[in-house]
User: Fold these one by one.
Assistant:
Number 1:
Amino acid sequence: MKPKAKKKPATQAKSTPRKQNTARTTAAAQTRTEQASASTRTQVRPRTSSVSRSQVRTVATTTQRSTYTPRTQPTQRPVSQPKAQPTVPSTSGVVAIAQRYLGTPYVYGGNTPAGFDCSGFTSYVFAQAGKSIPRTATAQMFASTKVSNPQPGDLVFYGSASYAYHVGIYMGNGMMVAAPKPGDVVKIQAVYGNPVAYGRL
C-alpha cells in the first residue's frame, strides 16, 4: 500500500489570504495616510511661504523707508562781497597828484594851489588823495611810520630826530617832488644830502 499524502492543515491555508488582506489593508491605510500628510504639507507650505514672503517684503520695505536718508545738496558758502576799496589812491596815485602842481610858486605858510610851502604842499596833496595828515613837517614826521626802504608816495624828511625843517614826496629812483624854498617853485629834484628819515602815512 502507498502511504497517503499528508494534507496541510486547513488553518495554514486559510491564514494566508487573511494575512495578505491585512497587509494590503495596512499598506492602503499607510498610503492614504502618506497622501493625506503630503496633501496637508502641500496645503500648509504655500500659506506659510506666502505669509513669510509677505512679512519679509513688508519688513524690508519698512526698513528701507525708515533708513532712507535723502541726499542733501552741499551747503554753498555765501560768496563774500569784495570789500569796498578805500578812496585813498595808491602811493603812485599820491605822486601823480603831486605832479599836477609842478610850477606852483613857493609861498611861506601857503597850502593852496595859489602857493605852497613844503609841508603845506604835502598836506594838500595827501588831502586830495583822501588822507588827512598834520600840517607841519615835524608833526608829519612823528605821525608817520619810519621806513628804511622808501617807496613812491613816502615822505622824505630833513632836520633832526626831534625836528623836521623840510619835507618832500618820494617818487622813486632817488627822486622827490617838493616845494623847496622861497623864490622857487614846486618841482622834481634828486633826494639830496642825508634825509633824517623816510616816513609812510
Number 2:
Amino acid sequence: MFRTALNPLLFLLLAALPLPLSAETGLPLRVTGPDRTVTLFDLEALDALPQESFVTGTIWTDGQAQFSGVPLAALLDRTGIAGMADQVELVALNDYRIEIPVAEIDPNAPIIATRVDGRAMPVREKGPFWLVYPYDRDSRYRTETTFARSIWQLTQVNAAR
C-alpha cells in the first residue's frame, strides 16, 4: 500500500521539474522589431548571419576564451531595428533586462556569442546566447556599464524607444 501511494507522489514531483534547457534543445532568440514583428532565431539562423570572433578574458570566466557569434549590429540590421529604434532591450532567461542605446553599438561589438572555444553553450554555462564585448581590446569595454550589459542566457532582443 505504501508503494502505491509513493508512485503517484513521485510522478507528480518529477513532472513538476523543469526540463533542462541547452543550446542543443533549440531554445530560440526572440527578436521583436519596432513594428512588433517577432522573429525567432535558432542557432542555425544566427549562424547564417555575419559572424565575428575574438579571444578575450572576462570577469566571469578563468583565462582567455574564444567567443564567436553574430554582431548585435548585424542582427539589428537584419530585423529592421537599426535606424528605427533609439534603444534595444535585451532580456535573459531569468528576466534580467538591460537597455543599450543603438548609437553605442559598434559594427563588430558586442556580439551575441553562440559559442565559446568552438562549442555551443548550454544554459548552465551562460548559454545558449551571451552578449559579449572584446573586453581586452579596449578599455572602453572594461566599464561597469559594459559589464552590466554583458547579459547571458539571452532569450529576447526588443526594439525600444
Number 3:
Amino acid sequence: MKWFRFFLDNQAHGKIVVFHHWKHTSKIAEKILKEKQYGDVYLKANMTIEDRVKFTERFNKDPQEKLCLLASIKIGGEGMSMVGASVCVFLDLMWNPAWHAQAMDRLHRQAQVKPVTIYMPMTRDTYEEEIWFRQNAKQTFLNLIYPNDPPGELELSHYPPELLQWLKDNPEPENDGNEDDEAEDDDYIGRDEI
C-alpha cells in the first residue's frame, strides 16, 4: 500500500472516496489515512440505510478538504450520493465489474459539479491483472447485449515515473496493520464523525 501513501501525499483534489473489498485492506487504509491526518468516515455493512445516508450527507456538506469516506464496494453501491468528492480510489478489485460501476456511479450523481477521477491501481502479473482482464471481457459482452451503454474497455496506464522513484526511496513501514486483523467492524462505528 505504499502507492496509497504516495497518492495521499500528492493528492490535490480535496475529498476522496476509497472503496475496498477486503476488511484487512480497509484497516491498513484507515491507518494510513490517520497517519496522513485525513479525517475519515467509515461506512459499514451493519449500519442502517438511514445512518449511511446521514454519514454521506455530512461528508458531502463538510467544508473540510482533507476528508476521506471509506466504504466497502458493496456498501458503496446502495443508492447513496457521494458527490462531495471528485476522486474515487478502489483498493481492491472484484470479479464482477457491475460492483465497480455501481460504486463509481455514487460520485456521478446529478448534484456533482466537479469532474470525477477514478483510480484502480493494480500490480501487473498478479491475480489483480487477471481480474482486470476478466472484468473487461464481461463488460465487452454486456456491451454486445446493451449497445447504447458506454464502451466497457478501460485503458491500462503505467505508474508515473515520480511514483516509481518515490516507491524506491520510501521503504515499507515495519507494521502496516497486519497484527490488528482480528478487530471487528463494530470498532469503526462513528469514528471521526464529521
Number 4:
Amino acid sequence: MEVAAYLTEKAHSVSVVELEETPFRRFLGERVGRALMKMFENNRVKFYMQTEVLELRAQEGKLKEVVLKSSKVVRADVCVVGIGAVPATGFLRQSGIGLDSRGFIPVNKMMQTNVPGVFAAGDAVTFPLAWRNNRKVNIPHWQMAHAQGPVTCLGSQGKDPELACSRLRQACWGTRARGQALGAGANRQFPRVPQGRT
C-alpha cells in the first residue's frame, strides 16, 4: 500500500488488486481497512477487490494490460507484485520455540516466546493486539517491527512495558493514519514523532 500511495504522485493512475474484501482486514480489522481504503480512493487509487491477476499481457516487450480473474482487463505500464510475507522460521522447528500453523512465532505482550528468556519481534511474530480483543495478529510493516524493539528490550529486563505494541503509523499524502495498540492498564506511549517528520 505504501507503493500505491507513492505512485499516486508519479503515475497517471494506480490500481490495487486484492484477494480480500477489504485491505488490511486480517491485520487491522474491517473498520480500519475500510477507512484506509477510502483514504486511498480519495487519492485516485482504484481497487479491484476479491480477485487476482490471471495474466500479464505485453506488446513489443512492454507490459500493456493486466487481466484479472474476474475477467476485468486493466491497462498498465508497470505491475508491482506484493504477495505477502512468509516467515523464515524453519530453522526453529526443533528448538523448542513454538511456531503456529503458518510458521509465525507466537509471543505475549512483552514479546516473549513460549521459552522463558527468549524474545522475538518483527515480521516473524504474532502478538496480542489490544484493540482486536488481544487476538494474535501479524502486521508485516517496518514501523511495527521497529516499535516492537523497545517493548522487547523492556520485557527482557523483566519490566512490563505496558504496551502490547507501540503505534503503527503510515504517512500518506500528508495525513497520518495512526493506530494505538495499548495493553491492559496502559498509561503511556513511546514518544511521538514531531509533526512533519516520519
